[in-house]
Amino acid sequence: MTSNLKGNLESKFALKVFSGKEFSETAFPLATNQVNINSQTTLASDKDNSQHVSFSDHDDKFWQEQDNVYYLEAPLAKVKEICCYIQELGCPLVLMFANDERNFQAGYAVYYVFAVREEGMLVVIKTKADPESMEIPSISNHLHAASGYEREIQDLFGLVPIGHPDAKRLVFHGNWPQGVYPLRKDFAVGQKPDFAQEKIRFQEVVGEGVYEIPVGPVHAGIIEPGHFRFSVAGEPIINLEAQLYYVHKGIEKLAEGQSLEKCLFIAERISGDETFANSLAYCQAIEKIAGTKVPARAAYTRVLFAELERLTSHLGDLGGICLDAGYGFANFQFQMMRGWAYSVADELCGMRFLRSVNKLGGVRKDFVSGKEAKLIELLLNIRSELEDTVNIVKSNSMFIDRVENTGILEPKIAVDLNAVGPGGRASGIRYDVRKAFPYAAYPNLNFKVPEHNNGDINCRMNTKIEESFEAIDLMIQAIEGMPVGKVCEPIAEVKPYRFAFGLTEAPRGENIHWVMTGENNTLYRYKIRTPSFCNWPALCHAVKGNIVPDFPLINKSFNLSYAGNDL
Amino acid sequence: MFDTLKKIIKYPRLTQDYPNRSLTPASFLGQTEIDTAKCNFCGECALHCPSQAIVLDKSARSIGIDYAKCIFCILCEEICQVGAVQTTNKFELAVRDKVTLNNHALCANALRDTPLSNKSNGESFYKTAVINEENLPNTSYETICSDLQATVKKIFGRSLQIREVDAGSCNGCDYEINALNNPFNDLERLGISFVASPRHADMLLVTGTGTRNMQQALVKTYEATPDPKLVVAVGACACSGGIFRDTYATNNGIDALVPVDVYIPGCPPRPQAIIYGILKAIDRVK
Ligand code: SF4
Ligand code: SF4
């Protein structure tokens, strides 16, 4: 169905589809000029290639560079039609972002990214917003997943999505003045506009006996801040609106103009418990731009760390679900295992949060050699304890009663909102970045992706349990299969105005970074989309019809990151 | 049921007896230190430090790390050509006085040797507009504050209720605070527990940079906490803004918004480092 998507797009809309490399050269002539000065020969041969390129050529060298990403530039008027067409083929919108490209072509560019998951391919539609009217046509009525992105773009760039069903503010609260847009290039990162006082409007549900419960931003537990507005009639929740972005720190703006090296440390701090997944996505993007092939030992090491992060995160979530259901014993069991997972991290790198492990081109040092036996012993210990605990938990019918059929995320909604990770997999979505867009050493390792359909807490819990076992097995495979050799291929210099995606499967799901380099080894634009951004709207749907006391439990079963969403 | 009992008997006690017993020397990474004797003042580390935490004065041949800003990334150790930078496993870094964290030439040693008992916290109250002046009797700030501090310690010495506030963190620090309740640290054994509302709290444990959107909520939480109260800043973000300093959406540390009693450096600080900081705030460690 999708196999000839590229051809269909070209013929149906009379547009040319480019590979990532060609596209950067045609779209950013500044870059070509620059390269021209430095190395005329390479440029000439590149140009040659681009003229004779056909898609089958690209498929042959699929593993190479950014060849699984195709770009297509479309006029503003056609965007909606193209997006709807691609969605109808079953390819979800996974990312949408804007970029201030006034330096190149006097305008703001908007990128719509679709994933062709069966083929491990990304299709990017690029369009230019009208610089006079600053308007783009909204596609949210047709692609529900676009709603959040369009509001984000409106807040950060001032591009108005015309026809959006509810285009109120997203990133900024009432304290941000109108007409100030931080991601425009003429806004300095340190600028602090005056505080405005605008009232925030929430979705209103009216009717007899309907009342609102406001919760947050400071919660009762030790969690991150966010404001939840429940509309309830008696116990059941009719509607939930989450106001987030309390921890918005301006990460995307902060990264602009900073050295590639520094941005790695910023990437590590996007979301604490997804440190490795984020730094890996960033590294992969830069490595693609630089054309670096990561040494095999580093690729295996990365799998080891990525799976350790997943295990740690899932154990914590499982404990949290038990705790919120009042099942203290099981919580302590999971927390104990989580503690053990942290000691594996200490053993490996001396840091509980797997920071300062990744490096552009590989990993910082050989973290594994000499520790293999000890690590495997620790991991097997966690595995056997996990087996015992899971057996106990699953035979506790009172607990299972509580989680079964609670907080159901309907498969249709999951698809529409592009729910990812365990949240999506529990609702029938068969997708894992590690399989669809394989990276690091995953193509060489064996693992199964859990498949569940009911979409309730129980399914999400089972998904996480199965993934924890897979994670332990993957780590052991990685340790055993790790070839000897160097662990880093240093990256000296990167061409300006080149861009690439970095995709990883974070513990919470699909994690996408889009990086565009600037001059002198800096970043021009860094777009980060963590899985939490997709799953927050899904959570708001999953709680509907459930009773308020089940909200913490449902929330825990998703355990989304506020920091990763708010940036 | 039988299996549950079996597990309970199998793991009777996991709790580490910190601070009564120090942690078994481990390989974990703690404070990074620069040895001024070995340093050749090339300035490479200061140039690359992602958090601009290295203070360097080439002409005075003096160098040091501002631990309020340091994100403990060990990049400087990797960069240093002459091996002057060393990462230790010291983690008990909490201090009362922020200056101690960035006392330029002194930073390497001063941190651990500060005589804590004769440090006055009074001045931190000057920074805030939160305390209402009319409410104070006609005595000087200093007297009130030092009396207050003494009382606080007397009152909170044995039992302390904490409210955690995330004022814009990456959630790393929050997970470490969460870990204080796990079976390994079990903070309640020290008479310290977390409460759901600031109105029941004696201490606010604050993480994050104090973002623009959390600013009001943080100040309101502070005001809702009954006096006397303590505020502990956890992590580089809360101490100085950390790596997120100077953006349009952040403050450079929460002391721009509320008075802070103890600063705990780290990114994130280990759970034991947080315990150390909490105990320091109530004078249970010297
Ligand atoms: S360890 Fe601290 S001082 Fe050294 S480079 Fe990292 S942030 Fe800078
Ligand atoms: S200090 Fe570090 S770990 Fe703590 S919130 Fe800030 S970035 Fe995260």
TrEMBL record, chain A:
Residues 77-191 form the NADH:ubiquinone oxidoreductase 30kDa subunit domain. Coiled coil: none annotated. Keywords: Lyase, NAD, Oxidoreductase, Transport. GO terms for cellular component: plasma membrane. The keyword Oxidoreductase applies. InterPro entries: ComplexI_49kDa-like (IPR052197), NADH_Q_OxRdtase_suD (IPR001135), NADH_quin_OxRdtase_su_C/D-like (IPR037232), NADH_UbQ_OxRdtase_30kDa_su (IPR001268), NADH_UbQ_OxRdtase_CS (IPR020396), NiFe-Hase_large (IPR029014). Pfam families: Complex1_30kDa, Complex1_49kDa. It is a peripheral membrane protein. It is found in: Cell membrane. GO terms for molecular function: lyase activity; NAD binding; NADH dehydrogenase (ubiquinone) activity; oxidoreductase activity, acting on NAD(P)H; quinone binding. Residues 337-489, 500-563 form the NADH-quinone oxidoreductase subunit D domain. This is Formate hydrogenlyase subunit 5. It comes from Desulfosporosinus acididurans.
UniProtKB/TrEMBL annotation, chain B:
Keywords: 4Fe-4S, Iron, Iron-sulfur, Lyase, Metal-binding. It comes from the Bacteria. Residues 30-59, 61-90 form the 4Fe-4S ferredoxin-type domain. Coiled coil: none annotated. InterPro entries: 4Fe4S_Fe-S-bd (IPR017896), 4Fe4S_Fe_S_CS (IPR017900), Complex_I_20kDa-like (IPR052375), NADH_UbQ_OxRdtase-like_20kDa (IPR006137). The keyword Secreted does not apply. Belongs to the FrhG family. This is Formate hydrogenlyase subunit 7. It comes from Desulfosporosinus acididurans.
